[in-house]
């Protein structure tokens, strides 16, 4: 009599790994990790607070992000510089459309790891410093949607030469860094100019699209690069008359260009990400062209800077929760998010967001109303939040 077990699945490689000839445990490229929500690959925008807003604790590969900005400021360009600097540090290929080497030389310098209290770690020495560094990294590992939780990453190692001389480098045995901390007062040293691919805007006659050369250059680099290379495409001040010819804003050219970019993103869903900026002062959201550009982008975020009078006003009307906090310089409106909006989800999380740009960093955080006039404890930030006897007594 046979006692053979039945209905027992055989362990072995999955059908997908057999078809591709690769094991599922293959190492991921530097600066890439799976999303904690659905496992899709994500990379960092270089701004930790922006990564948290996008919903996957990072920027999902194969998507585009359109950053709109009101007024004549360049806060959106600062986010692009963070995005480019993160790509350089991680060893990604950075494609710059319409700008040259001077723009690339103004990237912020890396100073450490985003989400870690580097000043607190530097004050400790010896084994205590190493023990505190490990404890700080894994202190909030189980939480999602917070800054320090972004320290989670797959077991690969970043050997980019830029980090060898940076103050925020880690030991070879430490987990890889997903998002770095940058300082706007410093400049990022680029050891090799081949990291960038400068795509100029060619001035052509009216019947020819000015975006044709951009698409051809991107297709050529994507087809010739290995599958493990991550490509970051940056398009600053799209349709600006300073960079683009006058007929570039024609819908038959710019909308076709966005359609083609969307096709490239779907063709390379694990290698390509695109970030663009659009000046709303020239192309307001009330126009049909801008709304179509938003529909052809996977994510849309609008920056609305405060007037100069509000920036220079007293701190009690700035929106800061306490006197110690920096004054916000504008509001952030999330119109759509990559992946979420495509699946029918809402764009914004429901909280009012504001951004603050200091001499060293760019931060997006919830916007708090200023304290009521006459509430001295709330204005000074000395309130402990505990209810008093008068408040409890009915």
Question: How would you describe the overall organization of this protein?
Answer:
- With 394 residues, the chain is α/β, with parallel strands linked by helices.
- The protein has twelve helices and 14 strands.
- The strands form three sheets. It has a nine-stranded mixed β-sheet with strand order 8-5-9-10-4-11-12-13-14, sandwiched between helices.
- It is globular, with a radius of gyration of 24 Å.
What are the main properties of this structure?
394 residues, 9-stranded mixed β-sheet, 12 helices, alpha/beta
* SSE pattern, N- to C-terminal: HEEHEEHEHEHHEEHEHEHEHEEEHH
- Derived structural class: alpha/beta
* Number of alpha- plus pi-helical segments: 12
Number of strands: 14
Could you name the ranges where pLDDT drops below 50 across 5 or more consecutive residues?
12-23, 132-159, 164-170, 309-317
Described by its quaternary structure, the protein is: single chain
Q: Mind describing the biggest β-sheet?
A: 9 strands, mixed
Instruction: Report mean pLDDT, rounded to a whole number.
Output: 77
Note the gap between the termini.
Answer: 81 Å
| Amount of helix | 25-40%
State which percent range the strand residues make up. 15-25%
């Amino acid at each position: 009599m046979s006692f053979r077990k039945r209905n027992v699945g055989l362990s072995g490689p999955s059908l997908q790994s057999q078809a591709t000839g690769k094991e599922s445990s293959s190492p991921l490229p530097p600066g890439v990790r799976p999303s904690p929500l659905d496992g899709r690959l994500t990379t960092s925008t270089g701004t930790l607070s922006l990564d948290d807003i996008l919903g996957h604790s990072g920027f999902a590969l194969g998507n585009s992000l359109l950053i709109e900005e009101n007024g004549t400021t360049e806060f959106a360009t600062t986010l692009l510089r963070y995005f480019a600097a993160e790509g350089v540090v991680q060893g990604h290929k950075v494609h710059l459309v319409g700008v040259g080497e001077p723009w690339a030389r103004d990237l912020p310098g890396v100073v450490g790891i985003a989400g870690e209290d580097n000043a607190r770690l530097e004050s400790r020495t010896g084994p205590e410093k190493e023990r505190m560094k490990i404890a700080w990294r894994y202190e909030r590992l189980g939480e999602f949607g917070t800054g320090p939780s972004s320290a989670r990453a797959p077991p690969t190692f970043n050997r980019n030469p830029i980090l060898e001389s940076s103050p925020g480098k880690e030991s070879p045995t430490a987990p890889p860094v997903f998002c770095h901390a940058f300082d706007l007062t410093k400049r990022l040293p680029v050891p090799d100019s081949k990291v960038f691919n400068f795509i100029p805007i060619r001035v052509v006659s009216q019947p020819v699209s000015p975006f044709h050369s951009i698409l051809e250059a991107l297709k050529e680099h994507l087809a010739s690069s290995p599958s493990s290379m991550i490509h970051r495409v940056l398009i600053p001040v799209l349709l600006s008359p300073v960079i683009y010819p006058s007929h570039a804003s024609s819908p038959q050219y710019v909308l076709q260009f966005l359609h083609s970019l969307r096709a490239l993103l779907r063709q390379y869903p694990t290698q390509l990400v695109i970030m663009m900026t659009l000046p709303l002062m020239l192309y307001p959201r009330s126009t049909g062209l801008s709304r179509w550009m938003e529909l052809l982008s996977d994510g849309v975020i609008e920056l609305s800077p405060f007037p100069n009078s509000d920036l220079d006003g007293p701190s009690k009307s700035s929106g800061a929760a306490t006197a110690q906090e920096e004054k916000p310089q504008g509001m952030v409106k999330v119109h759509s998010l990559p992946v979420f909006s495509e699946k029918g989800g809402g764009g914004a999380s429901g909280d009012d967001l504001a951004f603050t740009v200091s001499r060293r960093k760019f931060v997006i955080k919830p916007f708090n109303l200023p304290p009521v006039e006459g509430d001295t404890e709330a204005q000074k930030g000395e309130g402990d939040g505990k209810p008093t006897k008068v408040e409890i007594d009915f």
